[in-house]
């Protein structure tokens, strides 16, 4: 029997617990000079729509926060720094019968422990198509839908979620798998899931930020304790991605009621110390915090210009 550093035999290390993203995010932005605390969406109950027909006869859609690659918008390659120019500000959709190059360079995924070089970790369309071919699901919806990462609860609730619902209804969608990436993405996707479920479409969120999703109270949540950017499984690991999607679909079928969370048994690594790094101000020098503030402000200006030109 092994002992942890705390001396208790058999106990897991303190690191081996879900990252507190809301607290980390609040402390990080305070440390770089943004002192007004962000209010995360919080509900104590969630809507619940059981599947209206067996999954093998259901039309299933994907909702993503990833952005279509645009070579005119700067570096969006694997490991690229945060790129405010790659953001999108209105709902978009794409033909699921065609290949798509979606990137997550515009959001704060974990750039230390993953490199965003396999879109299968955030956009499970190939796995979904495989399952449709095998008869596990009835069919993939003709379109997938892009949900803008929006810090404004009101815009997500009053504009973006209703627009995604309208497109789902046009496509006669029975169920939706929603895949977020960054912390705010997890909130956005949770609010969209609640809206779809309220209006008769069964949903499951696949995500890595447990505290944010459960704070917003969603109908069904598959939690993978992986670095942000890997909600759909491990990179370059087809078995992991297939298993993760299958868990999400089982949750769609078997959840007994709203606010059902299932944790994937898959582990990112045997050593959980990777969880110390994400936006952890205790591990950042004052010079590094100042550099990040300058970089963040510059990207905010780029994003503001794009938002104004799109309005």
What is the compact description of this entry?
The chain is α/β, with parallel strands linked by helices. It contains 7 helices and 10 strands.
Would you mind describing this structure in some detail?
This protein is of the alpha/beta class and 311 residues long. Helices cover 33% and strands 13% of the residues. The chain is built from 7 helices and 10 strands. It has helices at residues 21-31, 125-134, 153-170, 183-198, 210-216, 238-254, 286-310, and strands at residues 59-64, 67-68, 92-95, 102-103, 139-140, 143-146, 175-179, 202-207, 220-223, 260-263. The strands form 2 sheets. Strands 1, 3, 5, 6, 7, 8, 9 and 10 form an 8-stranded mixed β-sheet that branches. α6 (238-254) links the parallel β9 and β10. α3 (153-170) crosses α4. The model has no long low-confidence stretch (mean pLDDT 91).
Secondary-structure class: alpha/beta
Strand residues, percent: 5-15%
Number of helices: 7
Multimeric state of these chains?
Answer: single chain
Largest sheet: 8 strands, mixed
Spatial gap, N to C terminus: 62 Å
